[in-house]
């Protein structure tokens, strides 16, 4: 949903170095830029003298950075040449593009005595880029486009960790020097390379900016077209249709597409870019994207075939266009796909506050309001003040002091009604989508529920649909970009979890393999061995299944028993005898928790957050067990209110005492049976709700691990609070929650866990 940017902190690789060597860093260097600039070269020289590393690639990668910070540019060039030799013969343009910007910089610095730096840089850039093929050059330009302010933030965080310390370990010194080197190079290159990139683009591509395209209803959408000069004749086109009107990112994506032998077109939501209309998210994107596809098919450079790609909002626009099935649309590759009304701005019919500021970011002007999305203090303050005040959710814009008409329009549609249904394919409309589709997402992608919604609905409505799924331990960024940063570093850690080596994935490379198989007759990507392609965490392998249901061949049922198990309750393989239950009380009017910080935030964590929740723990599993698929279950309970919002979290408790986050489910109880129509609870009466998670996971449990389920009531500053009065939740206030929520959870409640044995 959001324009997820690769945080610079993700671009730092772990340095597997063990040494008792300590290095001094002056205290002033932490807070003073001049002192830091003086201290870092000396630190780099000291580290060079002692640094050793068994893995040659890691050693060389660290060494050239040390040499650059130490201003030993001739040595850095030699090291970079050796590092490039290790990658020689790679067919991957991503691999070939790694560190090229540093080669350009080091060569210019080495020649600086013979000419001014800017002149030397121009010469170095032209020499290096003159030897690069289009695909590699496009990726180097993408790396050069990294925002220096994000790199500055990473450096600041690294320095902050050093505050109060007088010495650094070797690993700490390498990490700090890496952050410093990356930031310094990109900060110096950023203002100097734009004309050089434009010069290189002119040599390789025909670029048409701000192309207006009229829609059937009289609106105008704006397009960018990039065509490779090396191609002759008509070409297939790959379209990315987006609301994120960042000129640099748009050109970067279209350039990469053109470098792969396609026409690259970036289409913008009406009202963005050169469109004179008012920006409107979601509501017109389907018909507008279809109009752009029709327009493309009539252009002299088009061979009449169009594919679409992109992640998050750009995944949504693909399905929105497919709802209209324009004749020229031949294939899709949606990633981490937003599904309005399903996962944004609400999930399980529960509105999420992180979406509140998104309209300011995307609809304020013709481009993007970066200040809005970066103003974390404002949005944190808004959530805090709303929660503490007990005012209605609909009053958020009054508290903020700025009208938010789009968010308020969404609040008027708390059920999945025709407003949402008109945006994307609905029910039998999926049956008309008879083109190949490849969906990518991640177990830790916030939009996974949307991506799976399309996958499940497409296969239900069109049995035999050529729709593939690739999923693994990825978040919203990695599910659409892969596990290589824009700088080429492998991202091995995700929220504290060291992913399996086979989980490394280049989604960009997969994109062009996918479209080449459709438009150019190339083989289908090797990873797509079946409809569902998933990485089994902890097993270091990929598996493949014809359907989501086929990921497991057995089901383990665990009951939520009232038998104590330490601070938790027993997750029992046997149904408890009698009508035993657990009583839970939640004071919905309590606001003492407004500043509460969760004790756990990693995928792997020593702590488990059970606030307003109840934990259930199984007996240790005796054999290795692969949990793969969608968990489901039944809640058997009595509530004293007409409604409630709840969540169910799934974890592995390892023999080491660590909790491994697997999956979760959240929903409004009155919408569990039907997201389209609300069915209120009957206070005081025993009820059963059957549920099925929309979030997939796959994990190999070791013997001795336990399954943990946390059943909780949603009450926190970042989401709606359902006080259970039965009226529209957006209109409820603290007055509606004066009587605490009381629940009785019966042992007939259970979860079904799909496994493979």
Kindly describe this structure.
- The protein is an alpha+beta fold.
- It folds into four domains: 8-201, no CATH class; 215-343 and 419-545, Alpha/Beta hydrolase fold, catalytic domain (Rossmann fold), CATH 3.40.50; 350-414; 552-756, Jelly Rolls, CATH 2.60.120.260.
- Strands 17, 18, 19, 20, 21, 22, 23, 24, 25, 26, 27, 28, 29 and 30 form a 14-stranded mixed β-sheet that branches. A ten-stranded mixed β-sheet has the order 3-4-6-5-7-8-11-12-15-16, sandwiched between helices.
- α6 (117-130) crosses α9.
- Residues 1-18 have low confidence and may be disordered.
Sum up the structure in keywords.
Rossmann fold; globular; 10-stranded mixed β-sheet; alpha+beta; single chain; 757 residues; 14-stranded mixed β-sheet; disordered N terminus; 4 domains
Name given to the CATH architecture of the largest domain: 3-Layer(aba) Sandwich
Radius of gyration: 27 Å
Q: Fraction of residues in helices?
A: 25-40%
Given this structure, which CATH class of the largest domain is correct?
A: Alpha Beta
Count of structural domains: 4
Shape: globular
CATH topology of the largest domain: Rossmann fold
Distance between the termini: 37 Å
Please identify which CATH superfamily of the largest domain we are dealing with: Alpha/Beta hydrolase fold, catalytic domain
Strand content: 15-25%
Characterize the main sheet: 14 strands, mixed
H/I helix tally: 21
Low-confidence stretches: 1-18
Structural class: alpha+beta
Number of strands: 30
